[in-house]
Specification:
Blueprint: H1 15-19, H2 25-53, H3 56-60, E1 66-67, H4 68-75, H5 79-91, E2 102-103, H6 107-113, H7 132-144, H8 157-180, H9 184-190, E3 193-197, H10 203-211, E4 216-221, H11 224-237, E5 242-245, E6 257-263, H12 272-282, E7 283-294, H13 300-303, H14 309-324, H15 340-349, E8 354-358, E9 365-371
């Protein structure tokens, strides 16, 4: 009869002993906590996406305390799966639960997670994680220096961007930005020619077209996925907008324009200097260029006051810098690169002489009106 192997306990090895005696164990533990905290956040955001995608947050909004069984009846989803998801969300502090059996989405949490019309809605935080095919291509970009275009990120990226910034656009563009520029509302009311360069799914143009039907609107975009969605959205809203793929139709082909918009997109462009020059050439002498760009400074230590700075730099690698370097001669500004000083240099080099900055209590963006 064979003798069973004797199990010999392995000695306990502390992280500091592995790394070397010169490294403090507390320092190693602190890094471990950060690493696993970010990993936990990654998995929690996947659960958040499922809660949004499956309508669980919306089913809970305003319903008061619910058991998994009650939520299953309200949502049509499987009770056991809901219970595990609810406990995960309670552990993350996003849903209230005193005992792991009864769960409530508070009014405050509902504004962030379920009310997609609220300015506080989480939006793109609820988007699905990047697929392995995108991660593989990003890894390759570190070797080649060439990033991914917005279309390389898939057809869902256009909707992701609108969901990320759409609420601020809806709450700011027509109600606040247009009135802040002297005479602009009157020109749009009378009838102006408007171009949105980097229009995405066309939200800004749809908002303007609904408010100023006498004006003429054109959208210019590189992403065909975004253009397809923009055409669909404009038809659904019943507004007349012409959309153009910039590989086929340039801004100059439709010039001159009284108003040009570039909203949260200059830093994503491979050659924003060329775009600024095209806008200068295509803008009427008394026209205005409206710009929205990410709030940042040239000083990294100042930027570190932003509690979401790590996420913004990670977004840059994943999306903004990647797009800005998707061609060999890409400028590569990245998410935080077009700070006020850099933007001023860009537009003055293009020939513009006046740049006015506007503040609308937007924690993420700064706004500018630029004239010749």
């Amino acid at each position: 009869m064979a003798t069973a192997p004797r199990l010999v306990p392995r000695p306990k090895v502390w992280a500091a002993e592995v790394a070397g005696p010169e490294i403090e164990a507390d320092d190693v533990r602190l890094v471990q906590q950060k690493v696993w905290g970010y990993r936990q956040g990654q998995l929690v955001t996947t659960m958040m996406h499922l809660g949004d995608r499956l309508g669980i947050y919306r089913a809970m909004q305003g319903a008061g305390p619910l058991t998994a069984a009650e939520l299953a009846l309200a949502s049509g989803l499987h009770e056991r799966w809901l219970l595990e998801w609810l406990r995960s969300q309670a552990a993350a502090g996003l849903i209230e639960s005193p005992d792991g059996e009864s769960f409530e989405l508070t009014a405050a949490a509902g504004e962030v997670l379920a009310n997609d019309a609220a300015l506080t809605f989480a939006g793109s935080a609820l988007s699905p994680p990047r697929g392995p095919e995108v991660i593989d291509r990003l890894a390759e970009s570190f070797k080649t220096g060439i990033g991914l275009t917005y279309d390389d990120l898939g057809p869902g990226e256009a909707d992701h961007v609108e969901r990320a910034f759409g609420n601020w656009t809806a709450h700011t563009l027509v109600p606040r930005f247009v009135p802040a520029v002297d005479g602009l509302a009157g020109r749009l009311t009378a009838g102006a020619r408007v171009a949105d360069v980097g229009c995405g799914t066309g939200l800004a143009l749809r908002l303007l077209a609904a408010e100023y039907p006498n004006s003429d609107f054109s959208g210019f975009e590189l992403s065909q996925h975004a253009i397809d969605k923009a055409v669909e959205n404009a038809a659904a809203d019943g507004v007349a907008i012409d959309f153009h793929n910039v590989t086929e139709t340039s801004l100059g082909d439709k010039a001159p324009f009284d108003v040009v918009l570039t909203l949260d997109c200059l830093h994503d462009m491979t050659r924003p200097d060329d775009v600024a020059a095209d806008i200068h050439a295509s803008l009427a002498d008394d026209g205005v260029w409206l710009v929205k760009e990410i709030r940042s400074t040239p000083d990294f230590t100042q930027n570190r006051k932003n509690p979401l700075l790590a996420m913004m730099y990670a977004t840059s690698v994943s999306v903004c810098l990647s797009s800005a370097m998707s061609e060999p001669d890409g400028a590569g500004y990245g998410t935080l690169g077009l700070n006020p000083e850099a933007l001023r240099d860009l537009v003055t080099t293009a020939g513009f002489t006046s740049i006015e900055r506007h503040e609308f209590d937007d924690p993420i963006n700064l706004y500018y009106s630029i004239t010749k």
